[in-house]
Amino acid sequence: MVDPEILTEKIVTQNKTFLVDLKKNQAGFYLKVSEWSNSKKSSIFLPAEGIDRMIEILYKFKSQISDNDITKDPV
């Protein structure tokens, strides 16, 4: 049985489409991030416990890109 989507957001950038789905199964909530590019699909699954850390990492990367300072060594 496929877990139903609770929320779904779509991101289209360049020649790629991403779907970010919030889902729930017997183990709890999780994110499913899927990418479509050139008719290929791949997905990753992130348990709810990892969402805060993923957000921290994405903000850090966004900040480095915004500052145009991607030459710093990551910590």
TrEMBL record:
Name the keywords, alphabetized.
DNA-binding
Q: Which domain of life is it from?
A: Bacteria
Task: Tell whether DNA-binding is among the UniProt keywords.
Answer: yes
Q: Which InterPro entries match?
A: PUR-bd_fam
Q: Which GO terms describe its molecular function?
A: purine-rich negative regulatory element binding; RNA polymerase II transcription regulatory region sequence-specific DNA binding
- State the signal peptide span: none
Per the record's keyword annotation, is Lipoprotein included, yes or no? no
Gene3D superfamilies noted in UniProt: 3.10.450.700
Task: Name the family the entry cites.
Answer: Belongs to the PUR DNA-binding protein family.
Q: What is this protein called?
A: DNA-binding protein
| Provenance organism | Leptospira ryugenii
